[in-house]
Amino acid sequence: MRGPDLLIRTAMITLRQLYRYPLKGLSAEPLDRVTLRAGEGLPLDRMYALTNGSWDFDAGRYQPRPKTDFIALMDHPALAALTTHVDEDGRRLTVRTPDGGALDIDLDDAAACDRFAGFVARHLGARFEAPPAFVAGEGFRFTDVSVLSHSMMNAVSLINLATVRRMSEEWGVDIDPMRFRANLYIDGAEPWSEAGWLDRELSIGEVKLRAVMRTPRCAATGVNPLSAQRDMTIPATMMERYGHRDLGIYLEVVGDGVLRVGDTLDLAG
Length: 269
What we know:
- This protein is of the alpha+beta class.
- The chain folds into two domains: 139 residues, M1 Pyruvate Kinase, Domain 3; 100 residues, no CATH class.
- Helices cover 18% and strands 27% of the residues.
- The two termini are 13 Å apart.
- The N terminus is likely disordered.
């Protein structure tokens, strides 16, 4: 009974939403489909970032650095008020501001990138040790877990929408799943079941992946993506209620394929 029961249960798990975040700490870009390759992450995901001015970036010698070395939501909630989009070639950036203004930046133009970094610093109204710098990954990504290993740098993140709904019910508050800035949002699984998938292979449509790590949550989840205000203390509340602050999992891509919204997720074995 275990085998057939597993197949029936997992056949109803589907990929509901798919996102990339070209600029670390800035807005999500929804996708309908994406081509993935083994050992690689989503194309353009966290390929650009803004340093916090406390260090000098050298692409040729770069080693992964912690998120605190970059301008990120955990320290700067006002980032959520900016809407950004990078074109498919990764060469042009469009930024929309809360007052309806728009900026168009040629990412091959160093001076334009400097102006964008300065604009963000002014928008945040924060003081930095030195001017923030716009930086581009050349063979690497600015993911939070890049400090752990090269393979983790290219991992994709997954959120189970049922888990977020369960938390919302238990906490008596509506928790926006976009607070967790995942690449993949699935539905149809049991709440918290994804935490038990570690070291298992799964397929979503034609793409094969392996669950490699639970996702520890930081203060960035406290920022409301709609209001750009810090209005929750999700990690602290999770520790109080559950004794941990893990929500969602990281997946390593182990087989090439096209991932599409609406694809079915199946667990191996």
